[in-house]
Specification:
The strands form two sheets. Strands 8-9-10-7-11-12-13-14 form an eight-stranded mixed sheet. Strands 3-2-1-4-5-6 form a six-stranded parallel sheet, sandwiched between helices. By secondary structure, the protein is of the alpha/beta class. Helices cover 31% and strands 23% of the residues.
């Protein structure tokens, strides 16, 4: 197992893989990160990408900075590695189609690391929508805000990848999950509009700290997404409106509530299983990837969907830039 990049998410995947019984690693690291290598000293670590392939990995976790995903993923694919690529797929669409073609040509297994698709309540909500619980869906709103300096207290948030455009940071790409799960729930997007603001108190180099996004889906539904690096305490919730009522999912309290227009459609609230905590999503995501690699079947989050969601995010950034220029 190759792990490319050993920031907080690379370390999480490493620990989860060990918990799942994987114990044969090679690391590709630039040694520019803030996570120490104490945990990885028992395994080989390379700073030269060409040297990595001498260890003959067959699976690769691409968890280096977003802007550097594609070159490493392409090299891994050309060395016949199945791929789990952390979200977002990249910071641009350049070479994404080439990577997709390489994956298909070599019959590789590939997944995008969007762990919320494994959240038990989001899965429950999706199944209920497919069954017609809300009738025709008219719209949805997702809100996600977290105070950036609290994410990695051991480092200066202004130097983190989340705050730097050249590394693929900014609130839209970093908090891309709502764009992914709304795409998962409602399908292709036909139109994207966005307004974005800098939060001066954060002093992030990217200056992309607050975003309001509107998505028009081909299905007719309208989605709104609010993202920010400011809220304390953190907020992450999703509301969906349909002809029969409304569903509210709070990812912080792990509660799904239904407000129905008719008593005949009434549904009880649903809670996450006892003991559920955030890492369970990452574990289930990794189990899924390993199982797909073993059975040679397509993953639930194939690269084509990663490209589609990345395009939504980049269209949002482009819309915000155009709006700012007009102002």
């Amino acid at each position: 197992m190759l792990i490319a990049g050993f920031g907080s998410i690379g370390r999480r995947h490493f620990r989860n893989l060990k918990a799942l019984g994987i114990n044969n690693f090679v690391f590709y690291r630039t040694n520019r990160g803030t996570v120490t290598d104490d945990e990885t000293s028992a395994w080989p670590s390379e700073t030269d990408l060409d040297a990595v392939w001498l260890h003959r990995p067959t699976l690769a976790i691409i968890s280096n900075p977003t802007a550097d995903h594609i070159p490493v993923a392409l090299a891994a694919a050309r060395n016949n590695c199945d791929l789990l690529i952390e979200k977002p797929l990249s910071a641009s669409l350049e070479l994404c189609v080439e990577l997709e073609a390489e994956i298909h040509q070599r019959d590789l297994v590939a997944a995008i690391g969007c762990q919320f698709r494994f959240h038990p309540l989001l899965k429950n909500l999706r199944e209920s929508l497919i069954e017609g619980a809300l009738g025709v869906v008219l719209g949805a709103r997702a809100e996600w805000g977290e105070y950036l300096p609290d994410w990695h207290p051991w480092e200066d948030h202004r130097k983190s990848y989340s705050a730097r455009l050249e590394m693929g940071g900014g609130v839209i790409l970093t908090l891309i999950h709502p764009m992914d799960y709304l795409y998962w729930l409602f399908g292709p997007v036909e139109n994207v509009k966005c307004a974005m603001r800098r939060a001066p108190c954060l002093q992030t180099p990217a200056g992309e700290d607050w975003a309001e996004i509107t998505l028009e889906f081909a299905s007719g539904a309208i989605g709104q997404i609010h993202l920010d690096y400011l809220q304390r305490p953190a907020v992450h919730r999703l509301s969906i409106w349909g002809e029969r009522g409304r569903a509210d999912l709070d990812f912080q309290t792990n509660q799904l509530n239904w407000e129905m227009a008719s008593d005949a459609d009434r549904r009880p609230p649903v809670s996450a299983p006892d003991g559920f905590e955030r890492n369970e999503m990452f574990l289930d995501e990794m189990r899924h990837f390993l199982d797909c690699s073993k059975t040679r079947r397509q993953t639930q989050i194939p690269i084509g969907e990663g490209i589609a969601v990345l395009k939504i995010a980049l269209d949002a950034k482009r819309s915000a830039q155009e709006t700012h220029q007009r102002v």
